[in-house]
């Protein structure tokens, strides 16, 4: 298996010129910048997939909890939160509660 591969892509002349100028300002070869961008994109994709899996597991855990009768209705949670906020505002000296 070869150590390196050639990657060819089409760019509009304006984007190519702007990219080459930006790479020159950064004093880095364009190929190095492209490799770095590719690595960042691959990592971003991995992070997105990991987060999606985390979220899927979290939702499934919550659904299982609700099915098992361990959940609380949303209205109950909202009422408790509203009461807690009102109490904090009273303690802070707010009178518009």
In short:
This protein is mostly helical and 97 residues long. The chain has helices at residues 13-25, 30-67, 74-91.
Please, could you describe this protein's structure?
- The chain is an all-alpha fold and 97 residues long.
- It has a domain at 13-71.
- The protein has helices at residues 13-25, 30-67, 74-91.
- The N and C termini lie far apart (70 Å).
- The model has no long low-confidence stretch (mean pLDDT 93).
Assembly state (oligomeric): single chain
Order of helices and strands: HHH
The coarse overall form would be elongated
Largest sheet: none
Distance between the termini: 70 Å
Q: Report low-confidence residues grouped into runs of 5 or more.
A: none
The chain-level mean pLDDT equals 93
- Helix percentage range: over 70%
Strand content: under 5%
What is the radius of gyration computed over CA atoms, rounded to a whole number of angstroms? Answer: 27 Å
- Based on helices, strands and strand pairing, what is the structural class? mainly alpha
Overall strand count = 0
Tally the helices: what do you get?
Answer: 3
